[in-house]
Amino acid sequence: MAKISMEGLYQYEKLLAELGADTVKMAKYAIYPAAGEVLDALKAATPRDTGDLRDSEILTRFVTDEGQVYTAVVFDGYDRNGVPNSLKARAIESGTSRMKKQPFIRPTVNRMKQRVIERMNRGVNEYIENLMEGK
Length: 135
Fold this sequence. Notes:
With 135 residues, this protein is mainly α. The protein contains 5 helices and 2 strands; from the N terminus they run αααββαα.
């Protein structure tokens, strides 16, 4: 009868347990850099004729809700007339009764989708490699 002996399985079992227990941390490690790339692209795609909107601060809010991590894009601040930049961005994206729509958020998100997926995959792989190396 053949005998198979494997050493080190305990370390792999421990590693897999750590990965399963810390998925929120791993998700943040993958999402933060990817969100930064989307924000840079969104900033560049913001229509130039919007004045204060292009110069406004575009933020991401990272939310952890019941083990899920996601991010939301927020146009922060107000223009010089006191109009919230988030309202202005929505009006430009979807249009109003007085203004033709000029979509810039959805096309940017669609264009960046594959790149963001690749960046998040790279982030997860880096996290796993760092965990395996004990960093």
